[in-house]
Amino acid sequence: MNILQQIFTDYYEEIKYTLHPRFSEMENIDKLLSCGDPSFGGAMYGCPNCGKLKFVPFRCHSRFCPSCGNKYNMQRATSMSFKMINVHHRHCVFTIDQNLRHFFLLDRSLLNCLFHSVSSVISRMFFKMNTSKNFTPGFIMVLHTFGRDLKWNPHIHCLVTEGGISDDGFWRSVTHFNYTFLRNAFRTALLDAIEAKIGSSFKKVKASCYSNHKHGFYIYAKPNKCDPQTVVKYIGRYLGRPAIATSRIDRYDGQTVTFHYNRHEDDQYVQETIPAIDFIKRLIPHIPEKHFKMVRYGGIYARHRNSDKHLYPAVSKEKRPFLRSFQEWHNSILLSFGYDPLICPVCNHKMKFLDLYYNHQHVSLEELYEKAMSRSRGKRSSS
């Protein structure tokens, strides 16, 4: 049991009956607590040389779980890299007024407004460069709802191609982004979208945002080293990170939790100690609703045109199977911790898969497949 599982185990009853969590929050908490529990089943491996056995329990596959969430982010970063083309990208961060944050917490459907607003202003900025050619960039938007201190702070991280392709197949490179247009257009687009969803009661807050941000909402879009060779590592390290890693949790004494982070303003190291229930209150709001897409694609990354197929990908098709192989669980452990879990600790031979077990019972692969297919057929017939 890792430290995060211990915290949520100790406060499970208080979370369920005092905090009244959303369904998706409770579902992910339950998954987290069952992650790695052998009673839920797993796979049995054996050494063909000495007969040594090893049982590998099933994981929960929850994005909230530190280990499963990290693997999910690796898979997501790999799939993102396969979509990218071989050009420089710019990392942009679209932030909002802090007075707007609680609106997104109360109504999570407003988070869609963030994506739509970012998509519209980026598309319009490139379109304004040459309206007759209609240059279309490629961009990937990733929603972060947390700051480094774990407080609720929704914002969009976006990787944008430094250039766009016209309708007639001409590529135009762009080194200058119009920050003034981006800031003002994003502020206007977002506030209009929120007002359309909330209604006239939002007008007072909207007017306050205009007066407090006369030059638009802050957008970080300075040139950075997002060249084709490093962009794959970049999105995996930065855009795909979870809210908190267990390595950032320093202590838990049953009552309080101590964690650390580097403050965004000056990169100063900060260590914070808060009651465990307050730590949980900060953490669980970042669990998204079920099936909500935290990553979205725009421009040429969202469409499928024959003309776009002529653009050179950042990752060649020959390298893709090699990168996918890193996502296998034993390769992930080898990369993260430096040892292969399928090497026999007794004789150093490679262990082989023997069988699956589910709820303390032997289950063959064929039986698991048949159960899954029967459930699928039942759902289709009932609908």
TL;DR of this structure?
The protein is of the alpha+beta class and 383 residues long.
Structural class of the secondary structure composition?
Answer: alpha+beta
Order of helices and strands: HHHEEHEHHEEEEHHEHEEEHEHHEEH
Amount of helix? 25-40%
Q: Can you tell me the residue ranges where pLDDT is under 50 for at least 5 consecutive residues?
A: 379-383
Q: Characterize the overall form.
A: globular
Q: Radius of gyration in whole Å, from Cα?
A: 24 Å
| Count of runs of 4 or more consecutive helical residues | 13
Which percent range describes the beta-strand content? 15-25%
Largest beta sheet: strand ordering: 8-3-5-4-12
Number of strands: 14
Mean pLDDT: 85
Give the N-terminus to C-terminus distance in angstroms: 40 Å
Largest sheet properties: 5 strands, antiparallel
